[in-house]
Amino acid sequence: MLNRRAIVKAIINGGALVGVGALMPSLAMAWNKSAFAAQSQGFAVKLLLGGVPVASDQVSVKAPRIAADGAMVPVTVKTSLANVESISLFVEANLHPLVAQFIIPPDTEPSVSTRIRMRESSSITAVVKADGQLLSASQETKVTNGGCKDG
């Protein structure tokens, strides 16, 4: 049998769980808010990774040369580098160029595939952080129908 105390306790506990659930996405999604809010690619890279990447043939970006819809552009990044810590994606022409960062656990294949939004035709740049180095590769993608108004 439920008494008033048990009901109040259940409501309080349920409310606390809902509150924690509401906070978790913001913690997981944008832990470096200033980098995701940056309006230039160079500044976003510096805020997120602390340096300037060097172009490397050890990083590859695969995306369509022409994307019919900028709302869902498939991108794959692979690297042959060892000790990869993270892979970050930037779209230079977006209002906020940093579109994704993937933390790569140790002893994991350094490869990611995702879909990104592109405002307009632009260069897609992947920056790989490995052994304290920042290495990058870029590819131009022409967008025939923009996928985001503000991003």
Automatic annotation (TrEMBL):
Keyword tRNA-binding: no
Segments forming domain Ig-like SoxY: 49-148
Pfam families found in the cross-reference section: SoxY (PF13501)
Domain of life: Bacteria
Keywords, in A-Z order: Membrane, Transmembrane, Transmembrane helix
Transmembrane portions of the chain: 12-31
InterPro entries, alphabetized: SoxY, SoxY_sf, Sulphur_oxidation_SoxY
Name this polypeptide is given: Thiosulfate-binding protein SoxY
Record lineage: Bacteria, Pseudomonadati, Pseudomonadota, Gammaproteobacteria, Oceanospirillales
